[in-house]
């Protein structure tokens, strides 16, 4: 895993479906450097890494990725953007589903399948009992 520095988190909200973060993608982030001369764009690998880091922290998983599913990058994420990152998880399948959006505008989405040993800390504790 790359372990990119996380963006500025403006707010976090937990719902029955998952967790959403309002994030600010500052133009000063190193990830924009050299990722297109004409127009700086946040690399997809950085977006994916942020989703893995925040999702695994929030749901108690180890960041051990087995595979990526239905990964889509629909819109370019530009410098000084404020976007919502929403992540839900399927504990039975050890999967995180994420999407970056701003209202109806979708930037990226996908599913992250974690390795078998990456189970949530809750599941690990239950197994030890």
Automatic annotation (TrEMBL):
ApeI dehydratase-like domain mapped to chain residues: 12-111
InterPro entries named among the record's database cross-references: ApeI-like (IPR054545), Dehydrase_ECs4332_prd (IPR016962), HotDog_dom_sf (IPR029069)
> Would you tell me the protein name for this molecule?
Thioester dehydrase
Q: Give the organism, scientific name.
A: Shewanella electrodiphila
């Amino acid at each position: 895993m790359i372990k990119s520095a996380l963006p500025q988190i403006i707010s976090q909200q937990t719902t029955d479906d998952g967790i959403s973060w309002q994030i600010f993608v500052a133009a000063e982030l190193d990830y924009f450097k050299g990722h297109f001369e004409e127009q700086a764009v946040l690399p997809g690998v950085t977006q994916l890494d942020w989703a893995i880091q925040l999702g695994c922290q929030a749901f108690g998983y180890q960041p051990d990725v087995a595979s990526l599913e239905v990964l889509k990058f629909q819109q370019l994420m530009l410098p000084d953007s404020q976007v919502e990152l929403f992540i839900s998880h399927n504990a039975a399948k050890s999967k995180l589903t994420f999407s970056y959006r701003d209202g109806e505008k979708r930037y990226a989405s996908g599913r992250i399948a974690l390795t078998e040993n990456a189970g949530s800390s809750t599941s690990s504790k239950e197994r030890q009992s």
